[in-house]
Design brief:
- The chain is α+β, with helices and mostly antiparallel strands.
- The protein is 33% helix and 24% strand.
- The chain is globular, with a radius of gyration of 21 Å.
- It binds adenosine-5'-triphosphate (ATP).
- The site of adenosine-5'-triphosphate has 19 residues, from strand 11 and helix 3.
């Protein structure tokens, strides 16, 4: 039997505006709080993954950015197991290919994935990567679950991956069940809802970070007192701000949540520093501008890395923002800024 069946998926990354930080279950990846994110435009930060199956493959293998990586990691295994267990019969009469539910358990996969942006540099490559893997595998294996169920599978690969299955604004509900069945992502608003927002990512450093999110979160949960004060009230306020396209509230909440998250990192033992001097100077620059305008024009948020994600309220503001950034932080200068990525917060999720 000389055939291979393949599916290619493309999934953008997402940027949390109310952060996920801390797990209550490390195996199932269940968070200690709800989070909200914006899914980016796939033209800029996205993962493209091709999954293929063939009777001639003798083991599961995966390549990330052209380099073979091990699939024996727990997170990958969870996703493969969950998808395989939901596989359904597939038949292509013309080509004479038939794969039954049982065949899927025995057939091996080859997976090739490519990120068009730095991997493991705090730009949520794991979110786009694992969402894309689950999405593409589900298509390949004829899985008939809805996006909510798929998000719960992606979550077991990388927590924030569950939010990349939808475009627009997405909430990851922490859930209450011990088995994680209600810890899923839901779409709050689609990609057309608030389309004047423009996101600019200032890549302060594309180097791999020193503290991985996984170990950082574990240390925080074990040692930070401040983490108990992260306010669930912000989730409701952020949902309202998004619903009403209320930029001043959106910006205040996003900035406050980012700063609180980094305060929690500092309150962790050993303390975690994700932002650097350039990150701090970008914050000052935006805060000064917002205060001078009297009402927020730009929001900033920083994940587990020094890179700034800036959200401008419209295109005009985005142009001004870029001008200011280029003036104060010229790329490749001693300010240590690597590059800019600019995109609308639209999304597409195509499978070819
Ligand atoms: P952060 O989540 O803190 O914003 P990050 O996601 O870039 O940053 P990590 O959390 O360290 O960084 O995740 C990197 C890991 O995610 C990689 O080592 C790899 O295991 C996985 N990963 C990244 N890209 C892909 C991909 N395209 N397909 C599958 N797995 C990926």
């Amino acid at each position: 039997e000389k055939w291979a069946l393949m599916v290619t998926g493309r999934t953008p990354t997402n940027i949390a505006v109310i952060k996920y930080w801390g797990k209550r279950d490390e195996t199932l990846i269940l968070p200690i709080n709800d989070s909200i994110s914006v899914t980016l435009d796939p033209d800029h930060l996205c993962t493209t993954t091709t999954v293929s199956v063939s009777p001639s493959f003798d083991q599961d293998r995966m390549w990330l950015n052209g380099k073979e990586i091990s699939l024996s990691v727990g997170e990958f295994q969870s996703c493969l197991r969950e998808i395989r267990s939901r596989a359904t019969d597939f038949e292509d009469k013309k080509k004479g290919i038939k794969i039954t539910k049982d065949d899927w358990q025995k057939l091996h996969l080859h997976i090739a994935s490519y990120n068009n942006f730095p991997t493991a540099a705090g730009l949520a490559s794991s979110a786009a990567g694992l969402a894309c893997l689950v999405f593409s595998l589900a298509k390949l294996m004829n899985v008939k679950e809805d996006y909510g169920q798929l998000s719960a599978i992606a979550r077991q690969g990388s927590g924030s991956a569950c939010r990349s299955l939808y475009g627009g604004f997405v909430k990851w509900i922490m859930g209450k069940e011990g088995d994680g069945s209600d810890s899923i992502a839901v779409q709050l608003a689609d990609e057309n809802h608030w389309d004047e927002l423009v996101i600019i990512i200032a890549v302060v450093s594309a180097r791999q970070k020193e503290t991985s999110s996984t170990s950082g979160m574990r240390d925080t949960v074990e040692t930070s007192l401040l983490i108990q004060h992260r306010a669930p009230k912000r989730i409701i306020q952020m949902e309202d701000a998004i619903k009403n396209r209320d930029f001043p509230s959106f910006a205040r909440l996003a900035c406050a949540d980012s700063n609180q998250f980094h305060a929690v990192c500092l309150d962790t033992y050993p303390p975690i520093f994700y932002m650097n001097d350039t990150s701090h100077r970008i914050i000052s620059c935006v805060e000064k501008w917002n205060r001078a305008e009297g009402t927020p024009q730009v929001a900033y948020t920083f994940d587990a890395g020094p890179n700034a994600v800036l959200v401008a309220r419209n295109r005009k503001t985005a142009a001004l923002l870029l001008q200011r950034l280029l003036f104060h932080f010229p790329p490749q200068s001693d300010t240590n800024l690597d590059s800019y990525v600019i995109g609308d917060k639209t999304i597409l999720q195509d499978v070819g």
